[in-house]
Specification:
CATH class of the largest domain: Mainly Alpha
Helix content: 55-70%
Order of helices and strands: HHHEEHHHHHHHH
Oligomer: single chain
Number of domains: 2
CATH superfamily of the largest domain: Winged helix-like DNA-binding domain superfamily/Winged helix DNA-binding domain
CATH architecture of the largest domain: Orthogonal Bundle
Strand order of the largest sheet: 1-2
Number of helices: 11
CATH topology of the largest domain: Arc Repressor Mutant, subunit A
Largest sheet: 2 strands, antiparallel
Length: 189
């Protein structure tokens, strides 16, 4: 018997008995769920027929082993969803770590050209001449600059950025081209 209503009953019985030994009665169950006692009696009969609870007329409702397993699975799932990610269980963090790493490496590969320009600007250009690189860049057409900042440069844009009299000496720019990126997947592993 799988239904949201049945799940609510099982969770409520489990929550009532989780930290105490006293079983829950149908009237207390009705009060906790905010429904009529006759409706609780009908559902308890269905849960008992499904082997999820044990109940005798006018007696307490107790979860069977199968009912406890199902209720516990729901409670754990809900607690896990409600747990802030940094405090989540080790298994969740372990499962997310490779996904986050793969995403970061994919983004790094897509941004290789931008990292290359950054290395050329800050490693190849003399600090007193970096402004010349930026002056040249901002003389390029406005749509190219917009695509650059949006991370959607075309091959033509890249050629346009790199072609011309370089404001950085070629002898200093070439070693930057040969540097391994810190985010290179082969180096990072």
């Amino acid at each position: 018997m799988a239904s949201p209503a049945a799940d609510d009953y099982l969770k409520t019985v489990y929550a009532h008995t989780e930290w105490q030994d006293a079983p829950i009665t149908p009237s207390v169950l009705a009060a906790k769920l905010g429904i009529a006692p006759s409706s609780v009696t009908e559902m308890v009969k269905k849960l008992a027929a499904a082997g999820l609870v044990s109940h005798v007329p006018y007696g307490a409702v107790r979860l069977t082993d199968a009912g406890t397993q199902r209720a516990l699975a729901m409670v754990r799932r809900h607690r896990l969803i409600e747990t802030p990610l940094p405090l989540a269980k080790r298994e969740i963090r372990a499962a997310l770590a490779p996904l986050v790493k793969a995403h970061a490496l994919g983004r790094a590969r897509n941004q290789g050209f931008y990292r290359l320009l950054n290395r050329m600007l800050f490693r190849a250009a003399e600090p007193t001449r970096r402004h010349l690189v930026l002056q040249r860049f901002y003389r390029l057409p406005q749509p190219l600059i917009e695509r650059f900042y949006a991370g959607r440069t075309t091959l033509w844009d890249i050629a346009r950025i790199l072609v011309g009299k370089p404001p950085v000496p070629v002898s200093r720019a070439l070693p930057c081209l040969m540097e391994q990126s810190l985010l290179n997947p082969k180096v990072a592993q």
